[in-house]
Structure formats: C-alpha cells, structure tokens
Amino acid sequence: MCIEEMSELTKELCKFSRCVGDKEKTEVVINNIREEIADVLNMVEQIQVYFGEKEIEDIREFKINRTMSKIKR
C-alpha cells in the first residue's frame, strides 16, 4: 500500500509540472498533492514502526550530521 500511495503522489507531482500557467488546474493539483503527501506520511509512519523506529531515527540523525558537516566545510 505504501508503494501505491507514493505512486499516487508521484503522479500528482508530474501533473503539477504540466499545469503551470493554468491557475485553476494548478489549485486543484496542489490540493491533490497535499492529500497525497498526507497519505504518504501516514504510510511512512506505519512502515517505520514495522522496520524499527529507533534504528531509522539513528540513521536519519547520522545522515543529517553528515550533511551538516559537508555544508560547514
């Protein structure tokens, strides 16, 4: 289900790049993107529990610190 939700978000993001210049379509697509982001975030939280919240949080922290050290160079 997570892959399905991510696919739906991807589809809406692709639509966004095609509707530039059409204000009415853009508003609809933006609302759809917001809804799909919410769905993806909900699914990510669920799979995070399944695969280990602590371990994932540790990896995120490591990657954030690594990026910050590169930026500070």
Kindly describe this structure.
The chain has 73 residues and is an all-alpha fold. The chain has helices at residues 2-18, 23-51, 53-71. Helix 1 (2-18) runs antiparallel to helix 2 (23-51). The longest helix has 29 residues, at 23-51.
Total helical elements:
3
The ordered string of helix (H) and strand (E) elements is HHH
CA distance, first residue to last residue: 41 Å
Content-based structural category: mainly alpha
- Strand fraction band? under 5%
What kind of sheet is the major sheet?
none
The value of Rg in angstroms is 17 Å
Low-pLDDT stretches: none
Which percent bin holds the helix content? over 70%
Number of strands: 0
Mean pLDDT: 95
Q: What spatial form do the alpha-carbon principal axes imply?
A: flat
Topology:
Elements lengths: L1 H17 L4 H29 L1 H19 L2
Helix pairs in contact: 1-2
Give a quick set of tags describing it.
73 residues, mainly alpha, flat
Task: Please outline what is shown here.
With 73 residues, this protein is mostly helical. Helix content is 89%, strand content 0%. The chain is flat, with a radius of gyration of 17 Å.
